[in-house]
């Protein structure tokens, strides 16, 4: 059986999607805690805190969407669709890390898992299948 058809790979993908949903729910319900993944300091003024909390909610909705898109591609799409969805999700994680890097910290909290998602996507695309 080719790696791209692996049942274990589908379980890994489900875990990835669930992680995104969990990050999203955390960002909406606990914005101060979610901010620690970026290693940013919480704002001190009330107005700034309201703004950051709103931005964290936007981030949370984005992460929930990414998890839902991965679930949908996994259950209703093709392996290729799921693979490209994971590649796109890994690019979001890489971008988040790049933004943190410009602030001098927190980038490895994102760059650490981005390659794993990209590899899972590549496996689904058949990059490592034997010819």
UniProtKB/TrEMBL annotation:
Source organism superkingdom: Eukaryota
Transmembrane segments: 7-29, 56-76, 83-104, 110-128
Keywords: Membrane, Transmembrane, Transmembrane helix
Pfam families reported for this sequence: DUF4267
Official protein name in the record: Uncharacterized protein
Taxonomic lineage: Eukaryota, Fungi, Dikarya, Ascomycota, Pezizomycotina
